Amino acid sequence: xxxxxxxxxxxxxxxxxxxxxxxxxxxxxxxxxxxxxxxxxxxxxxxxxxxxxxxxxxxxxxxxxxxxxxxxxxxxxxxxxxxxxxxxxxxxxxxxxxxxxxxxxxxxxxxxxxxxxxxxxxxxxxxxxxxxxxxxxxxxxxxxxxxxxxxxxxxxxxxxxxxxxxxxxxxxxxxxxxxxxxxxxxxxxxxxxxxxxxxxxxxxxxxxxxxxxxxxxxxxxxxxxxxxxxxxxxxxxxxxxxxxxxxxxxxxxxxxx
Length: 257
Ligand SMILES: O=C(CO)COP(=O)(O)O
Description:
Elements: E1 7-12, H1 19-30, E2 38-43, H2 49-55, E3 60-64, H3 81-86, E4 91-94, H4 97-101, H5 107-119, E5 123-128, H6 132-136, H7 140-152, E6 161-165, H8 179-196, H9 199-204, E7 207-210, H10 218-222, E8 229-232, H11 239-246, H12 249-256
Parallel strand pairs: 1-2, 1-8, 2-3, 3-4, 4-5, 5-6, 6-7, 7-8
Helix pairs in contact: 5-7, 7-8
The structure holds 1,3-dihydroxyacetonephosphate.
1,3-dihydroxyacetonephosphate (13P) binds next to strand 8.
């Protein structure tokens, strides 16, 4: 099965950057030539979101890396989806492995945050992925399907959801999943969507890969039929390399042609 959605590349800047380095990154992105047929989104740290929205080209949309599970109020340190919409954001990342495994968010919390963000009109980049010991114990699809079910329990409209498959062992390690390894899990996720949600949702939902994607490996990954784009960490902090990864859409088109 193949995804029919448009290629999608997100740059997750995580907890990196300064006013100065972000100014330079935005300048690089503003002067870049992005190919047709790719949606490009960047996710700066909260404190730099306004700077990015005010200076970045409209060709690129902006995401937050997290949001609170409900309306704002007495929740010290949190940011509500309402506030993200208010400052002009279009997207939010939910369930990133660092939020699951470093901060300790559960499937249930992530599901609630996702449904609230969607209810406010944000698109959600919904992350799933197994740890190394889970892969080694042959539990990859079991873990990923459990994470998918927790999202599905809270999602009624999939049209603004992009799924990011990010194996934890590949994140920030330089150990990218092989195109075949990634394709296998992407196809399994698409099959799950087809069975549990609908064949239409399975065909239309973008399933993107994250974990040590760079300017060199993105082309081969993009050629795999169920890989509809990328969620990029480290390499998204380097403007020209991130542009190369976005333009891997041409490798995708070359296979489709
Ligand atoms: O976590 C990631 C994107 O969300 C991937 O990070 P790296 O590209 O640095 O491995």
